[in-house]
């Protein structure tokens, strides 16, 4: 069989079947583009039609979420849960509250989550959920009313052995608390059916930091393959949510100097880098006051606020996109290459466009896809589930040691898979192949279900 023709026909059917789901198509194309040598060597995956089966989520749930604002006005949002693949374990993936949420975006995220969870070595399937509700500018009471309404439907479909959501963009500890409270009331039990809980009622230490820390650890592992490290490197990131803030923290602890970051309003260029005082201000600004980075520049006058601009033109050696999909374009990648960047480590899901990835890889930069390098969050979510099951708490040091081992294992798994299939050093191919193989083999073992 001509494998190139087989994959081409498969992608054509995908485009015909879901013509409006462009982001989902992009994610599938990225994975399938790495699988030709796997399919050539293992025709059983073609015989069993694994690509066709993985293409379809096991279940998609869409529901109405009515709620009242503080003025008594009624609003209606749309809620989703995509239970994508349970071959390796219960569905696991975050809940995203953002105006950009659609069935397409969540389907892509659930597809990515399936392979990301596979790479962690933990027994977790893939899922994702959320709503087009925007938490920005809402009071705590408004967020609570929305979360309770959201959970009034979602509680029917989740549970410790079925589907275990976590937080994601726009959904942090506050939102998890409100949803878990309603889930507990409706189910009349206290279970580990959510991760990302606060440590004083079932959460794991280091869970908020885990994704950002994992990004930094992965970058450190990548640089080590070239006998290098983060020590003395200049770094830039994009988003300033949980992932971005804690990536800044761990990159700094590992010896890098973070000189650029951004939010919805624009970007900061701080040539002196972020120190402990500046990081403490950032945490308060982002997590407590939910303010704009304009205030950072006002507080630290040597820093420059650049309205409406991204960070990618700032000279750096390490770049970590940590915001959202397709945020780093071809012109951004060209700027990184021209400015001497050595390493691009994705901290969000599919933040680089295909054209950007091509430019980065052709220039010989180290590049890791988000399904590998941002897996720290779901890894510690899995550890939170373990602690809940055992009714124990691990120390920060214990969780951090587990996290470092998991990120190192993912790093080596990607490199080993890439080399085995003739693409030495290609982290994207390695992540796609290793993630796919584990899921595909489990699906075959469990039969046509």
Lay out the secondary structure:
Blueprint: H1 3-17, H2 22-32, H3 36-41, H4 44-47, H5 50-55, E1 59-68, E2 74-85, E3 91-97, H6 103-119, E4 126-131, H7 140-154, E5 163-167, H8 173-187, H9 210-224, E6 234-237, H10 242-253, E7 257-262, E8 266-269, H11 276-288, H12 294-299, E9 304-307, E10 318-320, H13 330-338, E11 343-345, H14 354-362, E12 366-368, H15 370-373, H16 376-390, H17 396-420, H18 427-445
Parallel strand pairs: 3-4, 3-5, 6-7, 6-10, 10-11, 11-12
Antiparallel strand pairs: 1-2, 2-4, 7-8, 8-9
Q: What is the overall shape?
A: globular
- The parts where pLDDT drops under 50 for at least 5 residues are none
Order of helices and strands: HHHHHEEEHEHEHHEHEEHHEEHEHEHHHH
State the oligomer. Answer: single chain
CA radius of gyration is 21 Å
Which CATH class of the largest domain applies here? Alpha Beta
* Integer tally of domains: 3
Based on secondary structure, the structural category is alpha/beta
Average pLDDT, all residues: 96
CATH architecture classification name of the largest domain: 3-Layer(aba) Sandwich
